Structures are given as structure tokens and as C-alpha cells.
Amino acid sequence: MSNEWPLWEVFIRSRQGLDHKHVGSLHAADAAMAMENARDVYTRRGEGVSIWVVESRHIHASDPGDADSLFDPASDKIYRHPTFYQLPPEVKNI
Amino acid sequence: MERAAIFQDKVDREIRIEPTDWMPEDYRKTLIRQISQHAHSEIVGMLPEANWITRAPSLRRKAALLAKVQDEAGHGLYLYSAAETLGVSRDQLYDQLHTGKAKYSSIFNYPTLTWADIGAIGWLVDGAAIMNQVPLCRASYGPYARAMVRICKEESFHQRQGFEIMLALCRGTEAQKRLAQDALNRWWWPTLMMFGPRDDDSPHSAQSMRWKIKRFSNDELRQKFVDITAEQAAYLGLTIPDEEFAQDPETGHYTTGPIDWEEFKAVLRGDGPCNRQRLQARVKAWEDGAWVREAAEAHARKVAERREPAAVAV
Q: Residue B284: helix, strand or coil by DSSP?
């Protein structure tokens, strides 16, 4: 890798119906190579039915330093949770 | 100072540190060294075992050994990826290995002289590695811990594969039993050395424990390994090659004789049985593979160029 190959992030869907999960990263010259390498490195034990590879530079991440202010709006809205609402136990199926 | 306190507080509360979190420069440097050394060990570790792929005694043994060696390559890749999140490039890491600047686990500088060595490596070396790696699944650095979780899942077949080989030999002919005992005789002490110097001779351990990139001391892990492996050796009918090996009747722990730390230092210095061969093999593989890397880049460029005109036409 004298011209360092781009970095790719790998996501695997383990079963039909589930979401793709991030499993790791690898270097590859292009998407086809990234796909084959992802298959070889991350699915040796039948871990997946589907692979996504995304160049790492296309992933935008929130800044952990901003976490407190970024996620603040939700922290005092407990009425978004079902447990906030007290119903009589006699009422079923709700 | 405030950032440092926040960092240490996260570590103390078992909150994982991720790549974009602030971290002390020394934490970053130590982790790069520790993770990359581990990665190099996986890749170099493929060599003594790949040595016997063409001479495995049966198709089943050959397939299992191939799968194990493949796994080691994968483990190296997970760890290189984790190291790269700390701001070092893959090329830099390979360069450190190929120029002899980086270390890798001392154990892989020993030769695999017989088929029984493959059994001994799986049983003892992977066994020792597992002892070290399981606690690291809770290492403070997120990418490292996650890589270790993946590695541990795959590592357990490695140890079982090795033990199964030892079992077959120990249940075999007299010649096969001797082969197994001989392999144990040569791999026992180097495996004990894998856990690193005695705690008293490990000045950096305390800081690593505070940072939770080391969860148990060298001696603690070594003792755990000895206790577990002694029972397995007894089951196999093999003798630990140590005249002073004994079980303390009160604690149940096994005590060993003195480890030859001069041998350990020599191997780390580059004077082990196979250090030069291992490095030569890695450098040769890198240089011989240059045309493959260049071809892959040229191909990717050509495919991209072919696509460009079509995009413009639209």
C-alpha cells in the first residue's frame, strides 16, 4: 500500500429482517475489493446475509465533546416514554 | 488538567474511550504500541503454523490448520484497524515491523519442528493468548475492546484444535506420545514467558492498569494459566518439563521453577532461534506482493476513469 488505499467501514446484516451493524474497517483499492475483503475478513463463520461497505470519509460523526448539548433536548422529556402514563391495572391491552 | 480528570473519570467508570475523545498523549502512544505489537504478533504467528499446512497428517487437520491461520490474519487486520484509529497509518506500522523497530510476541520466534508442535501451539500458546485477551474485552479503548471481543470468539476453536491434536497423539503409539511430550518440553517455558516479565520487573504495568489497557498483572495471568494447564497436561498423561513443578496442598495453586529470563531477553533482542527468518519472511512477502498492490490500484483507477465519461454525458 504505497499509495495508502482508502479506508472502508463494513456493515453486516446477520439475518433477513435485521439491520446492518458496524463490524469494523479495512483498506481496499475500490468497492469491489472492499466487498470481497469484507466477505473474507468479517463473514468467515456465516455471520451475514448482506454486506455494506462505505468509504470512511463519507461517514459524518457527532463530536463527543458536544454530546451533552446535542442530546440535551431529550433528557427532560420523560413523557415520551410509556411508563410516564399511569393507567389503572384493570385496563387490559394498553 | 480538567480534560485529564474527565478522561480518567470515564476510565474509572468503565465508560469506553472512542477515537475522537480527548486522551493523554501517553495513553495514545502506549495504545498504538500495544495494539500494533499485538497485530504484528498475529501476522508473524501465521508463519510457524503455516509451516505445517502442506504436511498435516489428514485432510481434516489440514482444513482446520488453514482456517486457524486464516483467522490469525483476520485478527491482525482487526488490530491494525484499531491501532489506525489512534492516528497512525498502516504503512507506518508495516514499516516498523519490517525494519525491526516494532516488537511482536517472543513466542513466535521459536521453530515448529514436528507436527506435535502444531498441537502444542494451539493448546499452550493460544491458551495463554486467551488468558490475556479475555480481560482485554473490557479494555478502556473502545475499538481495541471490540476487536478483542471478535478475536476471543474465534480464538476458542484454536485452543480446542490444538488440544485435540495433543489428545490424538497421547492416545496413539509410543512414538506419537513421545512426539507430544517433546513438543510440550520445548513450548512450555517459552509460553510462560509470553506473559511478560515478573510484576516486580514491569515498571509500566501500574500506569497501564490505571488506564485499564491492562486488567490483570503478568504474574496473575501466568499463575492462572499454569493452574489450568497443569490439569490438562495431567489428563493427557504428559509431564510438565520442570523438576520443581508442584502443587501447593493448601492453596491448590501450582508453583513452577525459575524462568530463564536471559532467554526471554535474548529473544526480545533479536537473538531467538527464528527472529531473522521471521523478519525475512515478512519482508519478502511484502516485497513480492508489491505488484499485486500496484495492479489493484491501477485497476481501480482504470475502472473509475471508465465511469467518468458516462457521468459527464448525463
A: helix
Put simply, the chain B residues between 16 and 75 with a CB less than 8 A from any chain A CB are: 18, 20-22, 67, 70-71, 74
Provide ipTM, 2 decimals: 0.81
> Is B254:B226 a contact under the CB 8 Å cutoff?
yes
Whole-angstrom distance, CA of residue B243 vs CA of residue B220? 22
Is B273:B110 a contact under the CB 8 Å cutoff?
yes
**Nearest Cα residue to A53 out of A3, A13, A2:** A13
Q: For residues B70, B71, B75 and B77, what is the CA-based torsion angle, rounded to 10 degrees?
A: 30
CA distance A33 to chain B (A): 8
pTM: 0.91
Q: Among B25, B39, B41, B110, which residue's Cα sits nearest to residue B80? A: B39
Q: Identify which of A2, A43, A8, A32 has the alpha carbon closest to the alpha carbon of residue B74.
A: A43
Judge whether B195 and B168 are in contact, CB under 8 Å. no
Output the CA angle B132-B133-B136, nearest 5 degrees. 105
Q: What is the pLDDT of residues B134-155, one digit of tens each?
A: 999 999 999 999 999 999 999 9
Identity of the residue numbered B37: Q
d(CA B113, CA B116): 8
